[in-house]
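I am still learning, so can you show me any protein sequence you like together with the matching structure tokens, please?
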Amino acid sequence: MNESAVKRKLGIPSWRNLSKDKVLKFAAAMPEMATEVRLKLIEQFPAFKDLGKTNIDAVTEAHKSTLAANENSQNHFYKASQDQRDALQADLGRDDLSWAQREALHDRLDQNVRRVGEKDSESKQFMGAGMKVVAAASAAALGLGVVFVGGKIAGASEDGSEESQ
């Protein structure tokens, strides 16, 4: 595949139009390119590595911000749940309650504890999904780096040089 075919495949008129979302398509198309075309294109795109790092940094910062917001939300929920448990326990300490009233308060305490457990599980699932996003973004950046380095090594091998950059 030559340079013009790559630009057509990416849907761009020139390399200046290579946007962040097209970088992955570009990387995926690299194995189909001749080594000399690959190297020529990478030379025209010196910020290739920097763009990948910038994307990873942006995903990491967004993930950190999301985790902080989640932690704040969790803390508010746990505080409200604890306040409710404290109030229910205080009510249970009253001497003037009937058995039915005590049973109702115990049921409410049980519901509160179950909601806290559900919220904890929900939070763990949320954090697991967030880690998958960060891992996927990191893997994509690593893949781009491997394609880049692989292209340089393959180019060096075809030229007969023993250097691996």
In short: Residues 149-159, 161-165 have pLDDT under 50 and may be disordered. The CA atoms of residues 27 and 147 lie 7 Å apart.
